[in-house]
Design brief:
The protein is built from 7 helices and no strands. It is mostly helical. The radius of gyration is 28 Å and the shape is elongated. The chain binds zinc ion.
Length: about 270
């Protein structure tokens, strides 16, 4: 049907069937709207073709660096913790070995939080100056902590302070990416929001550590009240799971944010 006085041919006839309209619109024969219909379709296809590799690259990078380390750290921690709680009463040697492995897994968990945070934090500026010192520092501190935990030489009470200091240094180094990011980003609102979420993660871990160290609430309750449920160790585990889940949520937020707001080095905005 003609709708343009300057175009005199290649019109489609009147078709009162949606199926046939679609068929003739795109496929059956050339007409003067072929370029419009097929153009729109090909534009969509073109966008999808460009977006697909970009999206799959973002997905693979995110899984490798943005979610993978955290998932590995949490799984290692939960697996070693489960092994400890099921098998520790096998023998005194088993108790010693499993508790060492459990502490090593906690060190790995700290590192996984830090490396994941570093990936999302420096996503738009992944230069050697921004990420390498953190990665090397976190991995070196984790290795030193694992040695301090596993080596028999550091087993004696005389090295209790050494072990505590090593863990504290690891904890401090794990926070350096966040501090570095704050310093270079100028504490803009986007960073501050993420920092608040990550402070929630840290607060959950700190609450767990305080409960574990103080033996609260069983320390202050009548004898036997928390023997089965609600003791400090159980609450500490709840805190750890809550902290890990919260950081996972922060990663999901970052991923969604990067889908919408790319940056120069983002896979979604080809340079
Ligand atoms: Zn436990």
């Amino acid at each position: 049907m003609q709708d343009n006085e300057y175009l005199t041919s290649y019109y489609r006839p009147q078709i009162q069937s949606v199926r046939h309209l679609i068929a003739t619109g795109f496929f059956l024969f050339p007409h003067n709207e072929t370029a419009l219909g097929d153009g729109g379709l090909s534009a969509l296809g073109d966008a999808a073709a460009h977006l697909r590799p970009a999206l799959s690259r973002l997905l693979s990078e995110a899984w490798l660096y943005g979610f993978g380390p955290l998932l590995l750290g949490v799984c290692a921690c939960m697996a070693s913790s489960t092994a400890f709680h099921i098998f520790w009463n096998f023998s005194p040697a088993a108790l010693k070995l499993l508790s060492r492995i459990d502490y090593c897994a906690i060190a790995l968990l700290c590192a996984s939080h830090s490396l994941t945070g570093s990936f999302w934090g420096f996503y738009c500026s992944p230069t050697p100056a921004t990420t390498t010192p953190h990665t090397v520092g976190v991995l070196a501190a984790t290795a030193a902590t694992v040695v301090a935990i596993m080596h028999p030489r550091f087993d004696s009470p005389a090295f209790r302070t050494t072990r505590a200091v090593t863990f504290s240094v690891l904890g401090g180094i794990c926070f350096t990416p966040l501090a570095h990011l704050g310093a270079v980003s100028g504490w803009h609102p986007e960073f501050t929001t993420e920092a608040v979420w990550l402070s929630g993660v840290a607060a959950a871990y700190l609450a767990g550590a305080i409960l574990f160290a103080t033996r609260y609430p069983e320390c202050c309750a009548r004898k036997g009240r928390y023997d089965l449920l609600g003791a400090s160790h159980q609450l500490m585990h709840v805190c750890v799971i809550g902290a890990a889940a919260l950081h996972w949520y922060v990663c999901v937020r970052n991923f969604r944010y990067r889908l919408v707001y790319g940056c120069t080095l983002s896979p979604l905005v080809p340079v």
